[in-house]
Amino acid sequence: MPKVTIDNEVLEFDGQHKLLQLCLDRGQELPHFCYHPAMSVPANCRQCLVKVGMPKVDRATREPVLDEDGNPVIQYFPKLQTSCSLDVTDGMVVHTHRTDELVSRAQRDNLELLLINHPLDCPICDQAGHCPLQNQAYKYGPEGSRFEFRKVKKPKAVPLGPRVMLDGERCINCTRCVRFTDEISKSHQLTIIGRGVRNYPMTPPGMEFDDPYSMNVIDICPVGALTSIDFRFKARAWEVSKTPSITATNAKGSNCFYWVKDNRIVNVTARENADVNGFWLPDEDRLNTDRFNDNRPDGPKVRMGGQLVDASWDEAYDAAGALLRGVTGKDVLFIGSAHASVEDNYLLTRLAAHLNADAPVYVPHVVAGADDDWLVTDDKTPNAAGCERLGIHPADPAVLKSRLASGDVKVVYVMDDDPVGAGVLAANDLDDVAVILHHSHTTNTTLASADVALPSAMIVETIGTFVNTDGHAQRVRPAKAIKGVNRSLMMEMGKSRLDEHATPFDRWSVEDNKVSCQPGWEALPAIAGRVSLDLKFKGPKQVMAQVAADHSAFEGATYEAMGLSGVRLVESGAVV
Amino acid sequence: MEVTSSSGTSSGKATSNAGNWKEYERVLLPPVKDLHKLDVYEDKGGYAALREVLTGKWEPATVADTVKASGLRGRGGASFNTGLKWTFMPPVDDGPRYLCCNGDESEPGTFKDRQLMEYNPHLVFEGILIACYAMSITTCYLYIRGEYADWITHMERELEKAYARGYVGKNIFGTDFSTDIVIHKGAGAYICGEETSLMESLEGKRAYPRIKPPFPAQFGCWGRPTTINNVETLACVPLIISRGADWFAGLGAKTLPGPVLYGISGHVNRPGVYEYPTGMLISDLIYDVCRGMRNDKKLKAVVPGGSSTPPLRADMIDGICMDADSLREAGSMMGTAGMLVMDEDTDMVKWLRRVSHFYHHESCGQCTPCREGTGWLERLVAKIDEGEGNLRDLDLLIDLCSEMEGRTVCALADAAAWPVRYTLDRFRDEFEAKCRPSSVPVTQLVTA
């Protein structure tokens, strides 16, 4: 197998590699800015320079030349090479900044040059704290600057489009954003304008940067030149916790980080997952973060004397149990949800089966024509495929209406959805039946017809499994805390610097913005217990183990196997 | 005015590598009236070399071998063996291949291609066609800098005539060889003269130089095999065919043979473009060809090959010839043979300030060291020129040159750094004289 020597350490490699990627894959850091594994290599930042040599070969004998000690003589390239553009070849000898003074000096020089016209406004820059330029300047840069002239002036706070703001002075011309629109999103909406030190990215005249994937350039910008118009100045990087999870806007289940400050979701950024979304995230997944924060219900309510009044959780569960007790078969209608996890839907099917009712149905949320063959799907729910695999199928409004009109139905059980708002049912269809509703927003239209209203946790507050449109099962993790579920007990929540280093007496530990709600895997067993069904599990992990045991379509989907990147389930044959 | 070659320096003793240059008969720019007209060019044996190659059934490889044997080296500045470059082209496949004739002459002090295009355009076309034949190419882009607007019109007019007579286009001389020549106007960027950014510019993109490898012969214009040659280089090709490789190899300096256009500017009595063999003594060029220094001033500095080549002090040019080896020995380069001559009144700091301004203005901004470094260099030199510099700025200048040299995609960073490094190195006293004196005398520092 071909061998390469990096910093005096010999390693074997296989296939075609760029040197920089090989080092990064092995966990050996090399400073770099312009290189991005998903895009072409322009080698323009010149930060990843390394010293490279090949064993000297005798021209006549084709044998390697040896020195007095019997070691091969290495012939180094006269110039330092950019490791990002260099193909690794057999016998290559590489010295990085760890073993070569010239390389570390070149890297330091380059950072000095990068910083001479950089505004160094880190204290007011959104990128500060997670900025590759800042981090690498501290790590590899010079102690100060010898530049004593005025820095170049360039346009600042220029909206390139509805979602992305440009600060030209911070730009280091890595061209990642330009290459993204050229090579990845193919919208060709950005280019570099100007020449030399006055270069910065801009849209062509008369064009707006309204690419539906435009905000990815914010993620890949190695400095604070491109910031989110929606998120800028809302939070510093060290004030937020970042929880790895998946997005819920459509059936693709793109991997993301939820940024949380003061128990509010403030930003969503892309998380790499080669099997699902690569490095990218559509803008629709990043925006409207307020839907997780605003119009959230505060505690359960029970209808008394025609009014929904506040109740304790036990009172609410008792009321729901009382409605379900005695009903059986055709008396009850279960509506599951493609917004809820596999675990919650599974528990609902168990409850329905216990009452001899029909299998639950779910309300489809489909926007025809939204699909772009990439990361946006027609289906606007994150778990329709998971529901199908559990035997939960889309509701047929005609069937629902005729059953309600027949007068047989006494109770309608709705989990995490809004059938009235979605147009599947009309409000007066529910006039003569009791409605048990798990809802996540006070704007839920079905709430007006509810007799027991149980606030439920959203995807950012729970633990569970979601199956995307390609049959990829992925876990979600709680990003923000809710009332009632012990934060430390979950053990899964992303941590901010404050979480890790502050004390409970610090101001950050506020109860504000915590929603009083319960995840389905807590609420459903509580109700099931009141109709003498034992659905008690230790937690969602045990529920999922049971699901995998009961349904072959979920074979292998254990929490351990899913980890951070999910598992691809066997083909179910079900049409979503 | 009679000016002897011995005035000023001791060049009389030195030997020129150009042989008997006083008897030299011009071939690139022969003294023929209206040679740019196709009729005149034909009368003087024009397009005979092309006819010979095409109707004489030369193998394309034979053409390339002849050029290789002639020892022709590129006249665009890098002096790379032209025939060898042609052999880098991969074997013919189904797709197109391109020749780019580089007429983006932008190096300050260089203005020879303009003369060729003005006075002998058909020689350029003939050279292009022969080169295309040698490499089985059917399209050549002649990239002319936009500032040469008049010359572009001129070349387009002459090209049209060549098309009308059947020298360019379909089935040249009734053979099955066809080639188109497309004249492309540059848009005013120095960097477009760099071969890879010339191709980017042709493709309609930003002229950012490409990383090599892959080299243009593998991945050139639109990803197809491409060769890029300078205007003067290609103009030599018909001469090599008609007069033979031996004739060419025997002219001038051994390692860089052939006729060359010396573009001499600056403080000489008769600046201009002169055609002589390579290997001319610099002193001959100044004191004989150009009739000496203007106003009989003393020579101070010579920049031998365009502004990016290191300048030579007057005392360094003794016996130095205009060829690669001799100039390397002296500490400079042949470049484009665009020679800048400066007399004793020249302020080298001001000169360097102007040169640095040029490279700052022309840096494309792709690579960090060049984008940031060229501006810093200019401002430091300007600061010194304004009398506000300190001695440590001189060291900083040298440091900056080391930070830029050899660390970028193309050679512009080197082109910007070399004049700074070598002007400072060879005229340091002038820089020191402009710097502020140190506030603490060195003696105090030593004794304290």
Spatial order of the strands forming the largest sheet of chain B: 6-5-9-7-8
Instruction: Give the beta-strand count of chain B.
Output: 9
Which fold name is given in CATH as the topology of the largest domain in chain A?
Rossmann fold
Domain module tally of chain A: 3
Low-pLDDT segments of chain B = 1-12
- Succession of helices and strands of chain B: HHHHEHHEHEHEHHEEHEEHEHHHHHH
Multimeric organization:
heterodimer
CATH architectural label of the largest domain in chain B: 3-Layer(aba) Sandwich
The portion of residues forming beta strands of chain B comes to: 5-15%
Task: Give the number of helices of chain B.
Answer: 18
> How many strand elements of chain A?
27
| Proportion of helical residues of chain A | 10-25%
Rounded to an integer in angstroms, the radius of gyration calculated over CA atoms of chain B is 23 Å
CATH class annotation of the largest domain in chain B? Alpha Beta
Main CATH class of the largest domain in chain A = Alpha Beta
Overall body shape of chain B:
globular
The gyration radius over C-alpha positions of chain A equals 29 Å
Give the fraction of residues assigned to helices of chain B. Answer: 40-55%
Q: Tell me, rounded to a whole number, the average pLDDT of chain B.
A: 93
Query: Spans of chain A of 5+ residues with little confidence (pLDDT < 50)?
Result: none
Name of the CATH homologous superfamily of the largest domain in chain B: NADH-ubiquinone oxidoreductase 51kDa subunit
